[in-house]
Write a structure and sequence with these properties.
Shape: globular
Oligomer: single chain
Order of helices and strands: EEHEEHHEEHEEHHHEHHH
Helix content: 40-55%
Number of helices: 10
Structural class: alpha/beta
Number of strands: 9
Length: 257
Amino acid sequence: MSIKTATFNGVATIEIARPEKKNALTVAMYQAMADALNAAREDGAVRAVLITGQPGIFTSGNDVEDFLTRPPGQGSDSMDSPVFRFMRALLDCDKPVVAAVTGAAIGIGTTMLLHCDFVYVSDEARLAMPFVALGLVPEYASSLVVPQLMGHRRAAEKLLLGDPFTPEQAVECGVASAVLPAGEVVAHARRVAERFNALPPGAVREAKQLMRAPQRELTLQTIRTEGEVFGRRLRSPEAMEAFQAFLQKRKPDFSKF
């Protein structure tokens, strides 16, 4: 297990702690994060949640070998797999969620930020959503939210070409709240989370729910639709070539498709 949790001064911290694998996420880690979010939601002593990683790395996204061995469920059970339990737990968390992006945030490392309330990024961070390059499609409602934030053309650069973007660009397009020096991002995010200790918790929860309500059902439907296509693409020859190339540390060859 590579998820560390702790609650201190009203803040439930979820720390992705697998630096030897660039904080790549496994099925077990998704389940642990889902459980931690659900526990924070039910704990009356928790006023906010803080999600962070390790110095220099937030998360590199899915652990490819684990992902290929234990892919998300297919068909009717697909939304009950650990990755979707995590997605739903973050969406359902009615307490403020603050993300401290300590370095690279790849794939779901970026898309999960779209569903946090505050996102503070290190000046050393690099964000990218290279789904198409892996023969896949966007996930976690990013095909809905990213074009809304950036407009279609800039979203096409990020989702179709997979172009990375800088911390400053993340702030400019609304993915992040602010850029901070690498050594300060976690402390600043914690201070923001702790501010909710002085605010009425019921009002905070209901205000967040109101802010999220207009798009909630559309977000859930987009996640389901993306999940169906993603699962199909995961079994495609293009994705198999991309993943094999990744594991073999070579450039993929899509000329035969």
